Please model this.
Amino acid sequence: MDKASRKRLKAMVRDQERKAALAALPLPIAELEAMFAMLDIALEDQACDHTRRITQAWLERRGHDVARVFAWLDEQGGYCDCEVQNAADNVEEAKKAPRTSSANPSLDG
Model:
């Protein structure tokens, strides 16, 4: 396989991984970004107590499925409020996925 073909193949695989990550998001991108921003501010004023109590309270106030979001955060290494930010880079990478349809509500945002 020549260099150009390998490069195209790598790009296709990367796009597929991004599409899968985008489809797996538990909330619309705008909501996830709002959650990360809220945590940035909240954690300036209070130390992380090694729980997700701040995240949980925010999700509940906004009517989100806490269990679903927490399951996704577990996969991202977000086991407490300060670690939830670990997922932000993965969301940014998923946003680079080529958008072919908006059948997934996570694409809206």
Observations:
- The radius of gyration is 16 Å.
- Confidence is low (pLDDT under 50) at residues 102-109.
- Residues 3-97 form one domain.
- DSSP finds six helices and no strands in the chain.
